Amino acid sequence: MAYTLIKGGLLVDTEWMRHQDILIEGSKIKRVAPVIDQAQLPSDTAVIDASGLCVLPGIIDAHTHYHLVSRGTVTADSFEEGSRLAAFGGVTTVVDFADDDKHSLLGSFNARRREMASMAIDYTLHQGVYAYRDDIAAELRSIAEAGVGTLKIFTTYRDVGYLVEKREELKAIFSAAKDLGLLVTVHSEDDHIITEIGRNWKGGYRPIDHASLRPAEAEAEAIKYVGGIAEELDMPVYIVHLSSKAGLEAVRELRSRGVKLICETTPHYLFLDKSKLEGDKGPLYVMTPPLRTKEDNEALQEAVLNGEIQVIATDHCAFTYEQKLESNDCRTIYPGIPGTEELLPLVNTFALSSGSLSLSQVVNLLSTSPAKIFGLYPEKGSLEEGTDADIVLFDPDFSWTLSRDTIHSASGYTAYEGMNVTGKVVMTYLRGRLVMGDGIYLGLSGDGRYLKVKR
After folding, report:
1. What is the distance between the alpha carbons of residues 81 and 87, in angstroms, rounded to a whole number?
2. What are the DSSP E strand ranges found in 88-222?
3. What are the boundaries of each domain within the chain?
């Protein structure tokens, strides 16, 4: 059994920060103590001096789209490349997506799981549900038994077949999910509003027009719609990539009535605004929902600081720099940006600049909270003895600049080009094995595990 001793680091979890040693035995955290005497350990124990570093639980990116086949092409980051860039960002687990083929949810899930067998970090899946069928409860039961804990619902994209149009059918899906203990996650944009705007639109279709064609009002109305169903059924709903102040106000209104809403946002909705959509490079910043205003950024930042947002994830959906710039028409630009690798340094920098968000709270937003919400805790998202040794050694004081030369996405660019950040991952361990150290990637294709969730 291989042993690794991490000595002298500042352990950071959601409870407290303290200088302690961690002993890894095989794939598990064996012991956590103020001092662990290496003289009492096997002579071949690997000893890592973590002085001056923070020791964090592995980061969980709860919203990724690696190797997504879309619009006649495939995203830039394969499962192998996604694993690689994740390791450089301290991410040891991702929650990706299985599309609904509308024939069999279990078949859709199994197909996606087979595709992801080459992952070098751990993963689980949200299962898309894009149509009601009479045996939907049995279908949901089959994926629940396979270890799926969450569904993905869209309130838009009627044109590509993602929208469950009838309210009673959507409510039936929600009800069946509640009975099985499945969490429903929702992409919230009202399709009717978007369709009407498009039908009456007199403007152009530049990247900047994307923000007007899919306004914040559409997000707010969709949140109210699914929140109303959740209220009727007395069940929680998870809102993915909250992007606007209007959407946040809808969340607040529903919560004031006792509706159980869990909210996720992303770094791009926190730190980028729609001015990025102007100019020749505008297509690089097209995603759905679109970027909003600085006022929206500030409202979401305040919500993070107030504890109104439970998870920050990335919605990593990376097309290449060249693919993004193939079109200047927001209807045909490939939507999505890379982001997994930049997640931790961006949020840590925000925490430092805010002066009111601790590193423990950053760990909660990026690791512990998603682990608990998605049924992975305490194996993931903790530094408890007996759990998976997913550990990140993080230099909290290292200042650097994000650029296409410092990130590892096959997209060849970062949406955060030129942003100065503080904090950098030095080492990433997945279940006790070093997968990235001192800028060298050591991940093994196929070494990632599919994680069955605890509902």
Report:
1. 10
2. 91-98, 122-128, 150-154, 183-187
3. 3-56+386-403+415-441, 58-373
- What is the spatial distance between Cα 82 and Cα 306, in angstroms, rounded to a whole number? 32
Q: Which amino acid is at 261?
A: L
What is the C-alpha separation between 207 and 284, in angstroms, rounded?
A: 9
The interaxial angle of helices 105-115 and 136-145, nearest 10 deg, is: 30
80 CB neighbour count, 10 Å cutoff:
18
Residue 405 half-sphere exposure toward CB, CA atoms < 13 A: 3
Give, to the nearest 10 degrees, the angle between helix 245-256 and helix 294-305: 40
Residue 193: which of 167, 214, 163, 166 has the closest Cα?
A: 214
C-beta of residue 368 within 8 angstroms of C-beta of residue 13: yes
Picking from 316, 190, 188, the residue whose alpha carbon sits closest to that of residue 240 is 188
| DSSP conformation class of 294 | H
Q: What are phi and psi of 22, to 5 degrees?
A: -125, 130
64's tokens: 């990724």
pLDDT tens for the chain, residues 1 to 455: 899 999 999 999 998 899 999 999 999 999 999 999 999 999 999 999 999 999 999 999 999 999 999 888 999 999 999 999 999 999 999 999 999 999 999 999 999 999 999 999 999 999 999 999 999 999 999 999 999 999 999 999 999 999 999 999 999 999 999 999 999 999 999 999 999 999 999 999 999 999 999 999 999 999 999 999 999 999 999 999 999 999 999 999 999 999 999 999 999 999 999 999 999 999 999 999 999 999 999 999 999 999 999 999 999 999 999 999 999 999 999 999 999 999 999 999 999 999 999 999 999 999 999 999 999 999 999 999 999 999 999 999 999 999 999 999 999 999 999 999 999 999 999 999 999 999 999 999 999 999 999 87
DSSP-derived letter for residue 59 is E
Whole-angstrom distance, CA of residue 239 vs CA of residue 184: 9
CATH C-level class of 58-373: alpha beta
> Under a CB-based contact definition with an 8 Å cutoff, are residues 299 and 245 in contact?
yes
Measured distance CA(347)–CA(247) in Å, rounded: 21
Provide CB contacts within 8 A for 260, sequence distance 6+.
230, 235, 236, 237
CATH number of 3-56+386-403+415-441: 2.30.40.10
Residue 181 tokens read as 């203990």
Distance of CA 113 to the CA centre of its chain: 18
Tokens, residue 357: 């968000």
Separation of alpha carbons 389 and 24, rounded Å: 7
439: Cβ contacts below 8 Å, ≥ 6 apart: none
